[in-house]
Every structure is written in structure tokens, then in C-alpha cells.
């Protein structure tokens, strides 16, 4: 192939294996074609994506296999054991940590042919889907019947339910409806030895450690999920939107903490730091007329950011004006969406307003919420930045409330310190009575893209660990965060995780190079 | 083109935000056939990085040109179909003809139309031209229902079509741009000869070809062309047609992709059906979210095309409606297992 891989190459796997797999899934669904090897070579790991524009891809799989149901998956996995072929499961390919990149010449097992809505039990409000269905279609099918799952990640239109389970994904409405682990009741998975495991769909049980949780976040190392049983709810009857302006991230965190420490469960809660408030709501602050976007004033004044970069970044700004907009200038915006039963929602609205008043929050009304709703799936700027030689990515971490303000301050500072950084901004969008998830978006226009990328990630991870935070809230580990796993879990924790994975996958068939270092495994650098 | 090429690069690095809506992807489960991966492969072809030409050419024919990805695109100014079409023309120049298109091209060579030998329609007088599209020509009940509507409203039309008259869409789909240009010029000449001021037709694809793609090959028919549906609505609004009401009847309307996504006609068919008294049973994927019927010769691969059609049939069947209707003769023909009608037939039946 003229297209070059820079992390790992495909291997020539035995033609007997390929022939046997063809007999299982059908000739059309096994491919060693160039077009397929390229298409399944990377997920949405952003440095990898950046490289693709130059004809360089991270890894080439040995083949791509697309089975249509659990039985076919089972047969393929058994065969893989027989021929010692490794398998990387590929869902929507929207994972951002490289968890679906086919290292070691593994084959890709594409789950996207398994994309059906199987059934809905309206009595218990449980829906069953094949694992390869894309989120938007899952929601559409449910909405059509008057229900919703309520897991709305920004990637809903390009990620699968199997991927959500495998990465422990979280959606924009998570503060009320929970994260994917709160929604999954049971599942069907093909284990590394080819056994089909069925986990019964009930809300809770006391039958030993939860097997279900082995798969939540397993990133394709424990089994291939083929069907998922999900708890769904009726489409809410009442929706109330609120927004406020606060003086600082710290005050906003206090206010939200007090809300979520009551019985209130707003579906959406988002705190935007000053830079994100500016970017989302188009508020030009009085911090200086050069501060047009991303809070990059200093950089422009010192000539570090070219007018071209400025104009690219400016493209992301909100351009509509609205009443109350000026009140957000130089402030931290917080938005709430309360939804569900009419009586509960009204009560929640009262609680939110009271707490906002206590912390001198200035009410701004519904408009910022509507702006956020209209822009929340807009990711058009990312590719444009990459095309112009920039690097952009997101990092989500979580800490207790007590550590949150210091973590916010230090993580921004440490990431800004990396040579090439142009913009580091943050928001909080997943809350618990005890903690909050901080989500950072960074962009840089460095000379050495790889160095900038690695240094920025390291700065963010080290700062998080320093403040007792966890290195990932919902994107997962993949291969990119693997070097930080020992510090995250501790030596005993990391060993336990390895032991579990090695015990489940004795022949090391599934997803090489991900999550934790496996036995006899080379680290991919 | 520079800006467009930049957008292709952007698309090749997009998270594939429209993939959920692509019927080819949904029917095949293939990542390779998603819009973003097509963009990456097109980029690599342009950079001369691909070795497997046939595999690449097949990929650009794994597309229904339906526009779902355009409706859901991150960029307002990007239509990947322009690139796909361009690659199809390169494929054609290199002699690549997908199996599904062979027969159609053969017919064009022999008869100047996609269907085979047929009579030429040339009748009537009036300022409005009624262009009988190739698929309407084959479907006498759509044709006679449309004629009935026009008669009832006392609209004089010059009706033309059949013979070697065709908008050229199948050639466009196959990437034969020279052939397409010739058909466009033939159509331009014919319409000028007819001297009509406006044209109506039952086929959304013909409209798109004559409005958008003719311009791309430097041809202009010089008059406006609208769907018979739009025209029928005008006649109803002007009080020229009175319609009997049906009672207790429900129906499911399938949005043809070009009509809904490119021509933005969503409300007119629904208003007409409601006026006649139908209650509408919308499928889960409807309006601009409706999936393509698969078409006949837009997709180059028979298995893919048939998988798309059966996917759409199943989605429509979910409504359990007693009747199904569309506004495109191709959709009607492709989805025939649903005893699909064309909206002209429904209006025809309701005429007082
Ligand atoms: C624009 C954008 C926005 C995003 N927003 C969010 C967000 O709001 N919240 C969030 O949580 N994440 C978000 N993500 C990250 C990503 O979408 C999630 O991690 C998602 O869960 C990945 O799903 P996928 O189907 O794309 O999985 P993939 O990327 O294909 O795979 C992810 C991992 O799961 C494994 N896997 C996939 N399917 C299966 C299966 N059936 N069985 C076993 N293993 C499997 C793969 O091997 C891999 O290890 C975003 C990503 C993008 C690009
Ligand atoms: S035009 Fe339709 S079939 Fe073609 S890539 Fe776009 S969505 Fe898919
Ligand atoms: S067509 Fe638009 S939305 Fe779809 S992948 Fe390309 S850029 Fe993204």
C-alpha cells in the first residue's frame, strides 16, 4: 500500500483463516481490500486524524470482518483462537483515545452490521438493541414509540451503543438520566474463548460481583457486545430552561453543588468558564478589544497568533445577539434544563432559582440555553484547525468538589504553559452530589505537533493526578492514557485489572495494546 | 474549487457526523461507505495514494446520491455528491461501468433513453409544457391521473416525452458526462422549440437535473420547471380543482429524497393529502430524515441497492398504514411491494 501506517502494520494472516471466516460471514463481509484497510485504520484519536490528511494512518488491520449476529461473532472468535489471530472490535469509530485502532496486525471486527432495534417492553420500560446501532437512530426509534434513552453524547450521530458500553460513555443529559452504566440492565457478549454470555436484564441483584460491570468500560478487551438491554423512559412532559451569570467558576461550582446536593435532578447542567461563555454566547468582554475568541488576547498582542489563526478561531463564535447578552460579559455562564413530570420540574425550578440568588447569579433567561441547544453538535471547527496545521482535542477528568477549583486553575495553567498552546478552555457538564467532571478543549498551533500534543496531554494528566482527580470521566483509556494507568489505579489496582483481563482473555485475542499493558505486549509509542 | 477542496479535507477529518443518516451505510454496515470515509478515499485518490482503482471506483458508486449527508452536514457549503459525481466521471473515462448500469447505458446507445424502444409523445397545445419523465412514461396510471387533473382544471399543456427524450439522469449517475451533456443540449433545444413558458413533471430527479446539473455542463432550459405536485397545489388554491373528501382513511407518505432534501418540498404533499381527508401516519424516518428508496441506477451495486430498498420498505411498513403514497415514479416502482401510489393518482381519484 502507498498509504503508510506510522504505529503498526497489518500482518499476513493465514489464507485458511480468511477462507474459513468467509464461510461463516459470507464472502462480502470479509475484506482485505485497500479501501477497507484504510477505512478501519483509525477511530477519532485526534493526532491520528490529523496525520490522515497527509496520507499517513496509525495502523493497518490485517482484514475487516463484519458479522451479522452473536452466532457469527462466536464462530469468528473461536476461529481466531484456533489461528491465534487478534481481534480489535470497531463500533462507530468515534472513540477519541485510539481504543479501536487495530494494533499488532489484528483484524477488525466491525459491529455496524448489527444495527437493529430488537424490542421494547413497555410494561417494564426496557428496550433491546443490537450493539452496532448508531445513537441517533436508537433515539429516533425510541422517540417514535414515545420513549427516550436520554444518553445524548455529542457524538450521538456517529457512535454506537456497543461503543458507549465499552467506554462508559456519558451524555449531555446525564445529571438526571445517568451515564450509560445507569441505563444498561443486561447484555449479550461473546467472550474471548467464544462462549456467549447473557446477562439478564434486571435493575439490581446480589449474585456476586457484577459481571455487567466487567464490560462497562472494558474497551473491547473482555468480550464483544452484541446486544444491549436498556432502561428507557417516557418523553418528558414538561421542560424548563434557566441560565445565570456568575462571577467565577468557583462560585458557579458552589451554586451547582448545592443544587445537586438537594433532591433536584436537572437533566442538563453546564458551567462554561469565561472563555467558553465568550465563545458560546458571543459576548465580547471588557477584557480588551483584541480578545475576540478563545481568550487569546495575550498571544495576539505578542504576535504569537497569526491573523489567519485568529480568523479560524473566530469562526466558532456565536454571531446572534440576544437580550441580556451583555450581562454575560466577563462572566461564567451556567445553564439548566429541568424536564419530566410537571410538578417535580416546577419544584426543581424553584430550587435552582433560590440557589442562584444565594450566589448572586444574574438570571439571563432561556436564550443561552437555546443557543447551546442549537450549537451542541457543532464540531465543524476541529477539522479546519487540523487542516491549517493546528492541533485540537478534548480532555475530561473528574474530581471531588473540594479539589475542583484548584484543579481547574492548575490544569488550565499547566496546559497553557506548553509551547504552541493558543487556547485552553473548560466547562463542567456532569455532576454528582460529591464531584464534577471538568471538560477541557485545547487548541494549539505549534511547530512540532506531536510534541505539543504529548506534552499537553501529560500536563493535564499529571495535574489531575496531583489534585486527587481521576484521569478520565467518560472517554476512556485506549492506548493514549495507558501510561498513566498505574498512577491512576495504583500498583495493586493496575495489577488486579491486568490479572482480570488476562484471566478472561487467556490467549490474548482481544484488542491488543489497549487499557493496560498485557502480558508479552510491546508498548505502542 | 480551492475552498471546496479544503472542505473535502475537512470532511475527511470530520467525526462522520452525518453517518447515521446514510442509507448505504445503514443497509450495509460498512464504514468504508460512510460519507467521511468516502471523502478520505477521494482525497487519497487525488493525491495518487491508492493502488486499487476498481475498489475505489466501486466505492463512489456505493452512493444513492440521496443528500442525507448534505442535510446533516457540519458545513453549509459542502455537498460531497459533487465530488462523488466527479470521481464517477473519472471512473467512466477509465472504462469502469458498474454492473447495474451496463444495461441502461446500452439502451442509451441504441435508443437514446434508459428503457428501450418506445413511442414519442408529442401532443397538445399551451404555454405549459408537461414533460413525461421516463418512469412516468412506463407508469400509465400516473400519466393518466396527471392528464385527468390537467383536464379537470382546464389547463392546456404541450405534453412531450418518450422516444429518445430523457433528461439524461442515468448517464449522469453513471459518470458519462459527455453523454449527459448531449442529452441536456437535446432537451434545451426541444424545450426552446416547444416555446413553452413553464414546465411541469412528475419526476423530482428530472427537475434537479434540469435546474442544477444542466447548469454545470453549461446548459440552460431557459424556463422554470416544477413538480406536478406544486402545480396541483396551485390549481387547488386557485379553486380550479375540487376534491371529494375521503373519510376515516389513513395513509403513509414516503418523501422522495430529491423532492424533500434538494427541492425542499415537504408540506405540499401533506397539505394535499390532509385536504382530501387523509390522516397521515408518519414513519420514524420522515421528511428530510426519510431514507432513500434505493432508486434504480443511482447505486452501482445491486445488492446494496436492494438492501436499501428493503430497509425503506420495512420502515414504511412499521406505520401499518392501509395505503402508501409518494411523489416520484421511481419510488413508487421501487417500493411496489407496498402497493405504493403516486400522489397524482390519489388526487385523480378524489376529483369531483
Ligand atoms: C465529536 C465527538 C464528541 C464526543 N462526545 C462524547 C460525549 O459527549 N460523551 C462521551 O462519553 N463520549 C463522547 N465522545 C467519544 C466517543 O463517541 C465515545 O467514546 C463512544 O462511546 C465511542 O463509541 P463508538 O461506537 O464510536 O466506539 P469505537 O470508537 O468504535 O470503540 C470504542 C472502544 O469500544 C470498543 N468497542 C466498540 N464496540 C464494541 C462492542 N460492540 N463490543 C466490544 N467492544 C466494543 C472498541 O474496541 C474500542 O475499544 C465523542 C467523540 C466525538 C468524536
Ligand atoms: S448522498 Fe446519500 S448515499 Fe451518498 S453518501 Fe450521502 S447519505 Fe450516503
Ligand atoms: S458530509 Fe459533512 S457531516 Fe458528513 S462526514 Fe463530511 S463533513 Fe462531516
What would you note in describing this structure?
The complex is a heterodimer of chains A (525) and B (352). With 525 residues, chain A is of the alpha+beta class. Chain A has three domains: 4-110, Uridine Diphospho-n-acetylenolpyruvylglucosamine Reductase, domain 2 (2-Layer Sandwich); 117-234, Uridine Diphospho-n-acetylenolpyruvylglucosamine Reductase, domain 3 (2-Layer Sandwich); 238-466, Vanillyl-alcohol Oxidase, Chain A, domain 3 (3-Layer(aba) Sandwich). Helices cover 35% and strands 21% of the residues of chain A. Chain A is built from 19 helices and 20 strands. Chain A has helices spanning 15-25, 34-39, 46-52, 70-83, 135-144, 161-167, 174-177, 180-183, 212-215, 249-260, 274-281, 297-301, 307-314, 342-358, 367-375, 381-387, 404-416, 449-466, 485-504; strands spanning 4-8, 30-31, 56-59, 64-65, 87-90, 107-110, 117-121, 126-130, 147-148, 184-190, 196-199, 224-231, 233-234, 238-246, 268-272, 332-340, 362-363, 391-400, 421-431, 435-444. In chain A, helix 1 (15-25) packs antiparallel against helix 4, helix 10 packs antiparallel against helix 14 (342-358) and helix 17 runs antiparallel to helix 18. Chain A is globular and about 70 Å long. The two termini of chain A are 22 Å apart. The model of chain A is unreliable at 286-303 (pLDDT under 50). Chain B folds into three domains: 2-96, no CATH class; 120-234, 3-Layer(aba) Sandwich (Rossmann fold), CATH 3.40.50; 242-350, Rossmann fold (3-Layer(aba) Sandwich), CATH 3.40.50. In chain B, the strands form two sheets. Chain B has a five-stranded mixed β-sheet. Chain B has 18 helices and nine strands. The radius of gyration of chain B is 20 Å and the shape is globular. In chain B, 51% of the residues lie in helices and 11% in strands. Chain B is α/β, with parallel strands linked by helices and 352 residues long. The interface between A and B is large, with 49 and 43 residues.
